[in-house]
Design a protein that fits this description.
Two copies of one chain form a homodimer. Chain A is an alpha+beta fold and 268 residues long. Chain A is 24% helix and 29% strand. In chain A, helix 2 crosses helix 3. Chain A starts with 20 loop residues before the first helix and ends in a 12-residue tail after the last strand. The interface between A and B is large, with 54 and 54 residues. Chain A binds a DNA duplex (19 and 19 nucleotides) through helix 3.
Chain lengths: 268, 268
DNA sequence: AAGTGGTCTAGACCACTAG
DNA sequence: TAGTGGTCTAGACCACTTC
């Protein structure tokens, strides 16, 4: 008979590595998830099984899972199991979209129902990366990237021009057709077709006069004050995945800072 | 002998209220903190004492404290105790200041050392609230507010014009002198002098041409694209405390979105 | 040495989901 | 009914701070 590895692929935590036990358990869990052994939307083994496989108590294992749930890597569903997070879940739709119609600040715990924008692709090309793209994606200047331009509309009005750059080496299988015929968000495409999960992002905002190109795409006058958001999306290990510049017409819309949404707070 | 209440003021959790036990414990803790029984910077009784007083196990009590720590209401210090958070702690200095010199996105876990701005007051007056101030602070239009204008400088360059509005009824004891002679941030002043702790804030950003007033204060040309951040700062119970409009010259600086800073994520 | 928060355990019981 | 995650307990031991 051939040797058969444990079907779950989980290693017992023996050599007392650095840090507390629950953090080692967390790393081991993350290792298995990154390995692709459990894909997006799949259920992990039950907590008791994992705890036994790792040789830790269930309380310790739960603390490890808590951290991964908190970082949106896992999702718990009571009575069903613990699942690898996927981007087409409703709960992640707005994790990276922060433009809303202008309005008053919400009162009390009021939750504004958000609209997801209509996306129209206005440019798709394989080009050589410019300075900013290369620096953000940590590739060499001139290395090929896919550069995708989209117009985002809310309530029928063009509000955002997105220019997306992703490494052509990393997304070599990408085609315009694959992109246009996707269902769901582009982050869902990254995850489903390329196995790349966007976990978090850096965002920096500034004001700038609209360029001719953006003015044309959004139908505004050239030189209008526009809000420019530069985003670097990261996957496991803080590896850069996507560099995106969103140019927003804030005549009737706002960019809503994330700390606004719920009683969350930095861990410091 | 006179009856003497328990010195800590904590009530046992008897009537099984709504939700799980640790959440009731959390509410009871928050109640005592809001009551002012323990002021900013003061230590709470030890976890074992609190747990006994409430009649819950230490694990349950710790879960309650975990939540309050996560929302920056409490701070744990191993070996010393659990303390009510105060705003002049170094860890809260940048919780509400998000302007940085333009630069590349940080690589890996790199931590940028931030500079705290020099603040110069350029206006202090008691005026009748305008539409936006009244709506944000949930007072009647025309109700008096303190309106404070500051110029914030980084590296010797004027970068931000802050216009702050706070209810004059809520901060009736405020004087220009008290404001000017404060040590620390204005949030520290709210907390120390008025017992009002800012816990979190809503922020919305947009681009706008600079007004004449802001142009003068910051020394830029009128009509330049400026980044405008509207912030509503809240205390316990999501009660509004301060409405602030920050107008930022983003020629050489960025507004850094909070989700950038660490692997934190919304709780959903 | 004494007191604090931090970690870890082993097990009981509850709430939810599915067949 | 069986399996999952969610809560709660009681206690042991560790790491850090202060005296």
């Amino acid at each position: 008979m051939r040797y058969r590895p444990a079907p779950h692929g989980l290693q017992p935590i023996a050599a007392s590595g650095p840090g507390p036990l629950f953090r080692q358990a967390r790393r081991e869990l993350q290792r298995v998830i990154e390995s692709g052994r459990y894909g997006p939307g799949e259920a992990l083994p039950s907590e008791t099984v994992i705890a036994q496989a790792m040789g830790v108590s269930i309380g310790t294992l739960r603390k490890a899972v808590d951290e991964l749930v908190h970082e949106n890597i896992l999702v718990r569903r009571q009575g069903k199991g613990t699942f690898v997070a996927q981007h087409n879940d409703a709960r992640f739709l707005f994790q990276f979209f922060h433009v809303e119609p202008r309005g008053e600040f919400p009162t009390q715990g009021e939750i504004r129902e958000q609209e997801y924008p209509q996306v129209d692709c206005v440019g798709f090309a394989r080009v050589r990366s410019d300075e900013a793209e290369a620096a953000a994606l940590r590739i060499n200047r001139g290395d090929p990237v896919w550069r995708i331009d989209n117009r985002l509309s809310l309530g029928g009005r063009a509000v955002v021009h997105d220019r997306i750059a992703i490494s052509a080496a990393l997304f070599s299988r990408l085609t315009e057709r694959l992109y246009l015929e996707r269902t769901g968000t582009i982050y869902s495409l990254y995850q489903t077709e390329f196995g790349i999960t966007v976990l978090r992002a850096h965002e920096r905002a500034r004001a700038n006069a609209s360029t001719r190109e953006t003015a044309r795409i959004l139908g505004v006058a050239e030189g209008m004050p526009m809000l420019e958001v530069h985003r670097l999306a990261l996957t496991f290990g803080d590896k850069p995945v996507e560099y995106r510049v969103s140019t927003i017409n804030t005549a009737a819309h706002d960019y809503v800072s994330l700390l606004a949404k719920r009683g969350q707070v930095m861990s410091g």
